[in-house]
Amino acid sequence: MQSLWADAGDVAIAFLDSRMRDLPSKVIEADEAHTYLKIRGPTLLLRKERPKPGTGVFWVWEATDAQSKLLIPPQVGKRALRVAKLFMADLKSPLKNRVQLTTDSHTPYLDAVEAAFGSEID
Fold it and tell me: How many domains, the chain?
């Protein structure tokens, strides 16, 4: 059953990547939301072993067009610079125009935004 969901996810990603192009967004709001996958945080604290790969604490990195409320495809991963850079690179690709980007003060955004957009962002 898991392979069915993995295949469905791959199809959804390919579909969104092919359709979400030249978005006329002007203001983008980005943030990350904390979540658990297959095991909750308190359970992790009680166990002595590490969680299995693909389980545990994750973050959903999401970006929303402030005017239309369109959710631009998110990134799932740890709350780290490497994931922030992937997220910002994916965020830049479907945008048509220079945008104003609003984020929280999570430090990895500074380097990730610079790497993806350079000076072409407000």
Answer: 1
Structural tokens at position 74:
């998110």
φ and ψ at 37, to 5 degrees?
-125, 115
**CA dihedral angle for residue 63, residue 59, residue 84, residue 64, rounded to 10 degrees:** 0
Residue 56 is assigned to a structural domain of this protein: yes
103-119: per-residue pLDDT in tens?
A: 998 999 999 999 999 99
Tokens in use for 21?
Answer: 């192009």
Within a domain: residue 122? no
Distance CA 89, CA 2 (A): 28
Does residue 35 fall inside a structural domain? yes
- pLDDT, average across residues 81-94: 94
DSSP track, 55-68: -EEEEEEEEEETTT
User: What b/e sequence results for 35-50 when a residue is b if at least 16 CB atoms lie within 10 Å of its CB, and e otherwise?
Assistant: eeeeeeeeeeeeeeee
The parent domain of residue 31 ranges over: 2-117
